[in-house]
């Protein structure tokens, strides 16, 4: 059997591929995605690097994005929109998959539509609490729509919607590689803005790092956006710290998948954006968090996801710009870590689902 995987949310896609290769040894998996993040600069995407790393065939597809606003990019997207459908049709004709598993996004739409025209079963997964436009359209052609949050069911037809939770990477549960050696003399806080980093979070931490290091060890993943040069600036700040504080501050632009299990295993608290991947990874690892939602996320999805975490007693949410207020919240949260950890036991049945297993069982059931 051949399964074609595509879509914008690569982390849950990779988690499903990992599980599929473990359970279905004769399965042939093909991934359709973007090889380059920017066609002008030819920078390879995270999805291309990760898929090639695990030995999966990668087919690059260039398609136009769905946009709600008019701009120069809109005209460019109009040109690539039909080309994306033509390319998707040709890929499906060539690969002849038995099923398509989409994870939303603008690439998922042409693949799903062309698969429907070719009578190939389509399954799609919606990662966020409020579905994007692409997945709302894909669900019209899909045999089943999988959702990460039970609240999302209202957007899709009941008879073909299955609540699965969000697939998480196997790497987060074990220590594969240590990016550094850390002797845990103080509680550990892991600060991250996601793979690209978050300038807002970096600026908040920059203003309170000396105070944090008085009481905690800080692991800070900054991202590498050249426009802000946060990593370079924070390295200079670290180098000026007293030796005893400098040894407690671990900076990195990015952590690889093989390293994140170690980071989670030694962390006591995470300060992060409230993306769906982070939400479900921290839930799976039983890690309390302070979420700083992305202010302009679609439909305020990050604010809603952060609020769920807070309402369940698993952490806190912060939306301000005052670094002193954030420092006070961190201290208060650290003082109540035992309470947050205990609350994870009561939420397990509601949000912590074996997502990849449910998805694959549904696809491969006869």
UniProtKB/TrEMBL annotation:
What's the protein name? Undecaprenyl-PP-MurNAc-pentapeptide-UDPGlcNAc GlcNAc transferase
Species per Swiss-Prot/TrEMBL record: Candidatus Roizmanbacteria bacterium RIFCSPHIGHO2_12_FULL_41_11
Q: Where is the Glycosyl transferase family 28 C-terminal domain?
A: 188-336
> Domain of life here?
Bacteria
An example of a GO molecular function for this protein is: hexosyltransferase activity
Chain ranges of the Glycosyltransferase family 28 N-terminal domain: 6-147
UniProt keyword annotation of Glycosyltransferase present: yes
- Species classification: Bacteria, Candidatus Roizmaniibacteriota
Record's keyword terms, sorted? Glycosyltransferase, Transferase
What InterPro entries does this protein map onto?
A: Glyco_trans_28_C, GlycoTrans_28_N
Please provide the Gene Ontology terms (biological process) for this protein.
carbohydrate derivative biosynthetic process; carbohydrate metabolic process
Kindly give the Pfam families that the UniProt entry links to this protein: Glyco_tran_28_C (PF04101), Glyco_transf_28 (PF03033)
